Amino acid sequence: MDVTGILDEHKNRFKSIQVERLVPVEFDLGLMACFDVNMIDEAQLRASQKARDTYLQELSREGAQLMINELFSLPTTVDEDSVYATLPAIRTVLPREKPAPKEKPMTRWEKFAKIKNIQNKKKSRMVYDEEKAEWRPRFGFKGVNNDDQKPWLIEVPGNADPYDDQYKARREEKKERIDKNARRAQRNFEENLAVEKGMKPRDMRKRELQSALVLSKGSTASMGKFDDKLAGEPKVKGLKRKFDPLVKNSDKEKSNNMEILNRVSKGEAKTTSVVNVRKAQRAINNAKRSKKQEK
Amino acid sequence: MLLKPSKAKNARAKRFLVNRDPKIVENGKTALFVRGSTTSQVILDTLKDLYSLRKPDAINFTKKNEIHPFDSETSIEFFARKNDSSLFAVGMHSKKRPHNLILGRTFNYSILDMIELGVERCTTMQEFKAQTCAVGMKPLMVFNGEAFNQNEDLVRLKSILLDFFRGEAADKVSLKGLEYVITVTAGPPGANGETGLVFFRTYTTTLKKSGSRQPRVELEEMGPSLDLRVRRVRAPAEEMWKQAIKMPRELNVVKTKNISRDGLGDKYGRIHVGKQEINKIQTRKVKALKKHLDAKPAKKQKTSDDMADSD
């Protein structure tokens, strides 16, 4: 029995899904995009608005059909409500929104722990408070370490002055611990910043101190003129003013004056290409440093 | 003392900041729609329709802003930082550049590249009677014309449009959700070789039975339909582009060889053992297995045979 006739008849009941293209169309199924490089009928595009739109619609339909054909032949997974096609990875190179995340620099303690192979033991966040018969956080809001009244009675140590306030001492000790932690955090931050900038932490700290010193010198009424000098105090380099001699070559004087006139009449930027040497030097130094850091 | 960057004061603020941090796998890009100081109805319609295509990952500025991205980058970069967005569309209108639409993207809150388009004709979604697609659907994108591979401006336009409408990265797509198509067609170039018009069209799809696995697609124009003329183009700085397309190391996962897992989560390893040299294996030391003992009787046999032959 010949089935081809029946099959053809069955097929002819529907419109075709075949699209003919001279050059095969490129797909990027990860983006659900296709790129058709075949010739476009330019006459149609130059024709009237209506003819152009119908041509574009037909062109788009064929493009969409090609893509639907591809998408429907991808491997699928079935969910409760729909059928999902698994998309391949995208092929077109598209830029990211932000650079890849940087690794967080290690603190001094973390470096030390790594060398000594000290593992971090995970403590539970909640601690059972027997007195109040409830679970409370180890630290933070309503934490057990915030209880200043605990223990409410403190024995005076044998060698201590009996009139010292032991409760105050306890409070101050805690504050001291918190401050010490903050100082350590600050040191870690400064050291890691220096490494990031490609400097030695000690050098950077020295530079910071010196610039702070120079600033503080200028904060008295006499601009630090009568202040005591410190050992190894940096010498402040000011701007040296240079004056031309009063009597000089008349040609040079003339050209100088002409330059000033030009600058006034035509504007600064057009007449001279003035480079701020200090600024340029700084830019070069910064570029060098960042290059070093990349290495 | 160098000042440490301030820390978030509460968990909500911390969550907000962490959400903005760079990620290995990024979330979808947010687009910003900004109006310039002077606008026309055409450009307003265009912005509105593009905004409704981009929803919900889009922020629409409804007030005018004195903004000229090609002349000064600062204000658009400021907006990008404030809104944590990396795509922008700026619409403006002037005598010199009528119905001006600027599409661009930023990398790390500074402008990467942008393209300026003149909107020569805009037919809005409202003017078409077709049903619009649901919000937040991913479109199919069709680029027609060889110019999209050859003309430098159009290559840039293609890249920006792909980025603009791709939506969130997904590894699977619902076959029911293929609701609309965006086609971009490069028109014939001008007499002096300048870039021709670009036709931007959007259609809704209806999938019909075709007697096979793949359905037949029919399209109906949905809008916006734009005829665009390319004006100024800002290509990305080479160094910045390199940075932007750099993949994080974590994403280039090297497949480990010889390790597999089955459906139950059991791990299987395939081990390669070197060639076994049976001759050299140390076995139990017994007198009977000694080498010279095997060899001797053989020799004896041989000699007796020899003698027999000679006899």
Structural summary, described in words:
With 295 residues, chain A is mainly alpha-helical. Chain A has 3 domains: 82 residues, no CATH class; 110 residues, no CATH class; 36 residues, no CATH class. Chain A has 9 helices and 6 strands; from the N terminus they run αββααββαββααααα. Chain A has a two-stranded antiparallel ribbon. Chain A has a two-stranded antiparallel sheet with strand order 3-4. The radius of gyration of chain A is 39 Å and the shape is flat. Chain B is of the alpha+beta class and 311 residues long. Chain B has 7 helices and 13 strands. In chain B, a hairpin with a 5-residue loop joins strand 12 and strand 13. Chain B has a domain of 209 residues: Rossmann fold (3-Layer(aba) Sandwich), CATH 3.40.50. The C terminus of chain B is likely disordered. Classes of the chains: A mainly alpha (295), B alpha+beta (311). At the A-B interface, strand 2, helix 2, helix 3, strand 4 and helix 5 of A face strand 6, helix 5, strand 7, strand 8 and strand 9 of B. Chain A: Pfam families: RRS1 (PF04939). Chain A: It comes from Coemansia pectinata. Chain A: Belongs to the RRS1 family. Chain A: It is found in: Nucleus.
SSE blueprint:
The complex is a heterodimer of chains A (295) and B (311).
Chain A (H helix, E strand, L loop, with lengths): L3 H9 L13 E3 L4 E4 L5 H5 L2 H24 L3 E3 L4 E4 L21 H8 L10 E4 L4 E4 L28 H31 L4 H17 L32 H17 L1 H4 L5 H18 L1
Antiparallel strand pairs in A: 1-2, 3-4, 5-6
Helix pairs in contact in A: 5-6
Chain B lengths: L10 H10 L10 E5 L5 H14 L3 E7 L9 H10 L3 E6 L7 E8 L2 E14 L16 E5 L2 H4 L1 H14 L6 E3 L5 E7 L11 E11 L7 E6 L3 E10 L3 H7 L14 E3 L5 E3 L21 H20 L1
